[in-house]
Amino acid sequence: MATWSARRAGWGSISGTDRGGREAPGGGRTLSSRARRPIFPGVNPAHPHEESTMRRWIRNAAVLSAALGTAALGTAIPAAPVTAQDHPVASWEPEVTRAHSFELSLFNFMRGNEIVGQSPSSINWTDDSRWVYFRWLPHGHEWDADQELYRIPAAGGEPELIDDPLVADSLQITFAGGALSPDRRHRATAWRGDLYLVDREDLSVRRLTNTRDNKGNVSFSADGERLYYSQSGQIFALELSSGQVTQLTDIRSGSASQDREPEGHRAFLRDQQLELFEHIRRQAARREAQEEVQELRREAEMVQTTYVGDRGNPGGFDIDPHGRYVSVQASRSASNTEQVVVPQWITEDGYTSPNPIRTKVGDGVGRTQLGIHAIGSDSIHWLEVGDVLQAHAMLEEPAGAWEPSQLEEVREGEVEIQSVQFRGWNDAGTYGLLNAGSIDNKHRWLLSVEAATGDLTVLHHLADSAWVAGPCSFCVGWIPDSDRAYFVSEAERFANLYAINADGSDLQALTSGNWEVHSVQIREQRDYFILRTNEGSPYSQHMYRMNFDGSDRTRITEGLGNFNGTISPDGSRMAVVHSTQTRPPELFMMDFAPGAEMAQITTSPSEEFLEFPWIHAEIVEFPAQDGIDVPARIYRPSDMGVEPNGAAVLFVHGAGYLQNVHEWWSTYYREYMFHHYLVAQGFTVFDVDYRGSAGYGRDWRTAIYRHMGGADLSDYVDAVRYLEANEGVDAGRIGIYGGSYGGFITLMALFTEPEYFHAGGALRSVTDWAHYNQGYTSNILNLPQDDPEAYEQSSPIYFAEGLEGHLLMGHPMYDTNVHFSDIVRLTQRLIELGKENWELSVYPTENHGMVTPSSWVDQYRRIYELFYKVLSEPGCKDGTGVCEVPAHTGGD
After folding, report:
1. Picking from 74-83, 636-645, 650-659, 789-798, which range would have the lowest pLDDT averaged per residue?
2. d(CA 769, CA 752)
3. Torsions phi, psi for 721 (to 5 deg)
């Protein structure tokens, strides 16, 4: 792996060295400019395979201690070396895995990123299509290290590290994105607050501004002669030939100040002064003359001051390509709301820090309105969206899964519009595109606005008896050089792509079927769509190209897993981030052609990780009570050559709307390794995409409406029945665990279905939905003041008296998502109910997405001990003492 270090090799030179300074094939010898801290004392981070596992660290502690005695100055040396006796359970490894170089112990695999690395991200091509830059951090770095900048040539090859942070920072201008000129020769970008122009053929850079005022939202004019950009909340134009800058808008909040005419005795006194004193009369005449001159000057200026009044704060300006019209969004915050304070307990100054985070569901929400401002005018044409939507409902029914009462509410004007957002101008600048959404999120509209008149046309109305959402739900835009818009909608219960003319005519479904569109792009050549979909199987996602009329949809990538491609500017090559069940996302390069071979560029995990026989879990579909087949991944003890112990552990993914049964790498990769740890000791592990999960269409997504812990939990009950009938699992020894939404389901399982679930680990769990946020919760359960029944039947705190099994709760104390107070309230409830078979572990420095390896080890050691003690053999849960947790006792 080459290293690019300007401090050693000079700007732009390539030094052929590996990360430790040794000569790499075909390169010169150059030391990396940055020292790196070791993962463990005595471990060389440049070659972490040499001492990459906890096992070797333990076994060679004496040797390492001796080596550390002569370590170079600056090496971090602990006061006492870590030994297996310090972590007897966490360092224990199942016997069946000990022949492998990868140590399958809690202490080792909960190191996370130190083992598997941080996968490539922020994939960007240079404008000349010669290089791909990306962020990446392979294994061997500390868990909290930042990703670094790499590059590869378009043809592929070894990744080159841009080691010098100043060089890496400066190079970003060559791939920082931005707007393309009409002839595609130049790219304009706002970077670090200033404007730059990049020649896309030779990558030369011209700095256009050098000020402290931040600039952004840069775009080219239709003729390519000027740039439009935002600065200090207004729109400006910069002439590329002369550098002249012109302010185009002066749109302000509030209203213009006006001198109030005096009344009563004040009016009498003013008139008296004018009547009695010539000095006052001359002074008043002079002031009036000056005001007339100032008014004439203002009228001669191109920019006029315009006020939005009481509509809120102006922003979100978007100027059309011809510089004639600007969309204006006015936002008004909710009043009389209360922010929840989350304390930060461990601080640098020793004082607890109170942090206001968010409101709770049911509190007030803000509103947005949209208007069109003609450049040079002193007014804004505010779009009366509500009236247009009401009139449209009189003529046409909405798409989607809606109820008749919803249409009547729109027709009666009873549906309140919360937000109106601008989505862009067509190339001619004659039409704009906008979304409108109802405050209950059961309606979403797509509209066009004619720039010259402000006339609105409803293009699409999607209504849902539950809530409007789905993948790619805001994938909207204009087909190039046309008045035709595209959008993604669940109109037929799956997220598909549609097109329609700006006047509302010729609606066309460009894709159709029981599969989902997950992303929509238009190639730089502006000749067809680039899609990522799960067509063919919900368990893989592939890249496609498709003509603008929906014809010739062609799959580009092949195989199992997730394929997320970024196409080169010239359209010939594609950088693909691809993963499978057993391999994390890596960067591949391929020709942009159907079935082209992919060449792997990066390898993030350690050699030990890659050598381990990770399970490619079988995807099964089991029948639910209502006859629906539910997908799951199963990890069997036989997959690792061990006998089943008869117990099963069911995993519940978080986020609610997330998919975890698929053929690509799971974001729950620590849990993936933990499942191997359980399987190696005889447990069967079942990972379910319960009702409410992503990837399976609208009906699956909304099956939890008004009752979280209903159909989703029922799927887990049916999973237990399936395991008992088909896998020989003892229905009396079932564990369940998960975090966030997974923790919530775990609580509901133990509280409401104790005959099916006997032990559970509930991590960072929602315990009462009335204390969660507005955006997520109100969609599914409505508002607590309007639908208290939905909240009561969905909140574990109301069912705590049903606890019979063994419960472990774990929660971060600085959780800004599911607040620590959530678990505190449930804890008090359990105390008052006199429940005894539960415990709570807390993590003082962690937020919702826990990051510190020591916290992960502690959390999963507790979960493992719970499952082993209670479930691993018949009779454990009755307290017979036969299930003592195995621990490392020294030696090998």
Report:
1. 74-83
2. 17
3. -60, -40
Closest by Cα among 567, 524, 514 to 544: 567
Tokens of 871: 């479930």
- CB count in 10 Å sphere of residue 794: 23
Cα of 247 vs its chain's centroid, Å: 36
**Which residues make beta-bridge pairs with 41?**
none
What is the widest separation between alpha-carbon atoms in the chain? Answer: 111
Q: Name the strand (E) or helix (H) holding 712.
A: helix 711-726
- The residue-averaged pLDDT of 191-218 equals 94
Provide the CA 842 distance to its chain's centre, in angstroms. Answer: 26
- The pLDDT assigned to 1 comes to 56
The answer to whether the CB of 381 falls within 8 A of the CB of 403 is no
Tally: H helices and E strands in the chain: 19, 45
Fold that domain 614-878 belongs to in CATH: Rossmann fold (3.40.50)
**Phi, psi angle pair for 509, to nearest 5°:** -85, 115
**CA distances (Å), 165 to each of 11, 22, 858, in order?**
12, 21, 35
Which residue carries 């792009």 as its tokens? Answer: 521
What SS3 class is residue 125? strand
Which residue type occupies 655?
A: A
Quick: pLDDT tens for 7-66. 333 333 223 333 333 333 233 222 233 333 332 223 333 333 333 333 433 333 333 233
The answer, yes or no, to whether residue 302 has pLDDT greater than 80, is no
Strand partners, 735: 649, 759
Cβ atoms of 764 and 856 closer than 8 Å: no
